[in-house]
Design a protein that fits this description.
Radius of gyration: 14 Å
Helix content: over 70%
Distance between the termini: 28 Å
Mean pLDDT: 84
Number of strands: 0
Largest sheet: none
Low-confidence stretches: 126-130
Order of helices and strands: HHHHH
Strand content: under 5%
Shape: globular
Length: 131
């Protein structure tokens, strides 16, 4: 039963990330539309919160700083730009790869560390998540 639920999590999260990635590529150059900001925020929140239940502890480390940035954007604090679009796309690619390969223990690679650092540096509230 747990494998079935894990597979549903992988399938639904992968699908959500693919839709977000498609919207980023087609609709976002310098500005990420409000609806897409909310989708990214919700997806990262889900990965951060639900991933560990299915053995994807490592994905929470990636999703948390992105979630914090998009939470701020969702509440109207800050603006998007082309670099944010590019980095968000990079994070989504990493997360999709991990889910596709069902790899709960991807080693920290330089690209991943750079992306996490980028999101930590642009978020004024990098002390942790409040939920």
């Amino acid at each position: 039963m747990k494998d079935k639920i894990r597979n549903i999590f992988i399938r639904e999260t992968s699908s959500d990330l693919a839709l977000i990635q498609e919207e980023l590529v087609t609709n976002a150059k310098d500005m990420i539309p409000d609806g897409l900001v909310e989708k990214v925020f919700r997806a990262m929140h889900t990965i951060k919160g639900s991933g560990p239940m299915f053995g994807f502890n490592h994905l929470s480390d990636v999703a948390l700083p992105v979630e914090k940035v998009y939470k701020e954007l969702y509440y109207g604090k800050g603006q998007t730009n082309s670099q944010l679009v590019e980095k968000t796309s990079g994070v989504i690619n990493l997360l999709q790869k991990a889910l596709t390969e069902c790899d709960a223990h991807i080693p920290n690679c330089n690209e991943e560390r750079a992306l996490i650092e980028y999101f930590n540096n642009i978020c004024p509230f990098n002390a942790g998540s409040d939920d």
